Amino acid sequence: MLTIYGDSISGNCLKVKFVCDRLGIPYRWVETDVLKGETRTPEFLAMNPAGQVPAVKLSDGRVLAQSNAIMLHLAEGSDLIPSDAYDRALMFQWLFWEQYSHETVIAVRRFHKAYLKKPDAEIDPALLPKGERVLALMNDHLATHRYFVGGKLSLADIALVAYTRWADQGGFELSRTPHVQDWIARVEQDLDLARAA
Ligand SMILES: N[C@@H](CCC(=O)N[C@@H](CS)C(=O)NCC(=O)O)C(=O)O
C-alpha cells in the first residue's frame, strides 16, 4: 500500500491526500510534524534528502517527493489530467505557477503568521502585495472559468486550492476576490473537504 509522509497543516501534503481520496487510492498516512523537526531526522533524510514533506513510498518501496510530481504520478490516466494536449499543457502551466509564484507567497506568509506567530512587522513586507496580485490574477481567470482548465476539476485546481482556501490565515482577505471564493467552495464540494479536512 502507498504510504504518505505528511503534515496535516501543510497544503502541499494535503494535495496528495485529496488526490488519493478523490481517486479511491488506499494509503497509510504517517503524520510527520515539520515544526518538531521530524523531516530532519536521519531516518527521514535517508528517505528524502531534501528533508521535506510530502514524500510517498510506493507499494514497491520506491520513494517520490514534491507534491505536484506525486499528484501527477498518482493521477496518471485519470480524469484529473486532461487528455487534450493543449489543456494538459495549460494544467502544467498552472502547476508551475503555483509552485513558483503562489505557494512561495500565500503559503509562506501563512506559515510565518499562523505557525511561527510572527507579528506583521517581522514578516517580509513584499509578501502581502505579492499575494494580493496572485489572488487578483486567479480572480480574473475565474471570472470567466468555473475551473482552471478545460471546464472541469483537474490537478491545477487541487494544487491551487490547497493553500488558497487558507489564505485568510496568512492575512489575505478573500472577500476581495469573490470569484476565488466561489471556486474554493466548488472545489471543496467536489473533493468533499468539509468531511475530509
Ligand atoms: N515544493 C515542495 C515544497 C515542500 C515543502 O516546502 N514542505 C514543507 C512543508 S509544506 C517542509 O517539509 N518543510 C520542512 C523543512 O523544510 O524542514 C512540494 O511541493 O512538495
Provide an overview of this structure.
The protein contains eight helices and four strands, in the order βαβαββαααααα. Helix 4 (85-115) runs antiparallel to helix 5 (127-142) and helix 5 crosses helix 7 (178-191). It has a four-stranded mixed sheet, covered by helices on one side. The radius of gyration is 17 Å and the shape is globular. It has helices spanning 11-23, 42-47, 67-74, 85-115, 127-142, 155-164, 178-191, 193-196, and strands at 2-6, 27-31, 55-57, 63-65. With 197 residues, the chain is of the alpha+beta class. Helices cover 52% and strands 8% of the residues. The model has no long low-confidence stretch (mean pLDDT 97). Helix 1 links the parallel strand 1 and strand 2 (27-31). It folds into two domains: 2-74, Glutaredoxin (3-Layer(aba) Sandwich); 85-192, Glutathione S-transferase Yfyf (Class Pi), Chain A, domain 2. Glutathione binds next to helix 3.
